[in-house]
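retry 2 of 3: previous attempt timed out while embedding zinc ion. Reduced batch size to 1 and resubmitted. Inputs unchanged:
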Amino acid sequence: MVAVEPEFCHQCGAELTERLVHGRKRPYCPACERPFFRNAVPSAGVFVRDGDAVLLMQQADRDSEWATGGEWTLPGGHPEYDESPREGAVRELEEETGLRADPDDLTLLSAPHSTHRGYHYYMLTYLLGYDDARGELEPGEEASDLRFWTPEEMDADTENTREIDRRRLSLAFDD
Ligand SMILES: [Zn+2]
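retry 2 succeeded.
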C-alpha cells in the first residue's frame, strides 16, 4: 500500500506498468507480478476546548505539510503504524502543546476524507475538554506559540486561521 502514485517497484526497483485490478487501473510490477494499492493516510487532530474557545498552535517559522510558517493550526499529525489514531492524537498533542491526555478521553467528532496540498487523508478530528488535559502549555518544536481562540476571533483573522475547517470547528461546540 502506498500514499502517492509510485513509478518504481519498492521491492525490486523495476519500472511499473498499469493493470486493471479490482475494477481500477493500478500501478503494477511485471517482475514481482503485484499491483500497488494506493490509500489515503490517516491524520489525527485534537480540538482542546476550554469553554467557548479551542486551543490552536502557531506553526513555527517554517512551512509544514499543513500550513505555512506563522499560520494557526489544530494540534495533530499522523499516527504511527503501530498506534491507534487516538494514541497518535495524544502523542502529537503532547509533542506540540505539552498537554497530556488519556486516549479514552477523546471524543471523535468526524473523520472526513480530505485532499490537502495534493495528498489524500482521513482527517480524524477529536474533541478533548481542557479539564481532562494534564500538564502545562508549552509550545513544542513545531509550534512557535499556543493560545485559545473563539470562533469569532478566528473569523476576525481568517488570513492566519484559514487551515481551521469551520465545519469541524462547529462540531466542537455542538452541545
Ligand atoms: Zn517488483
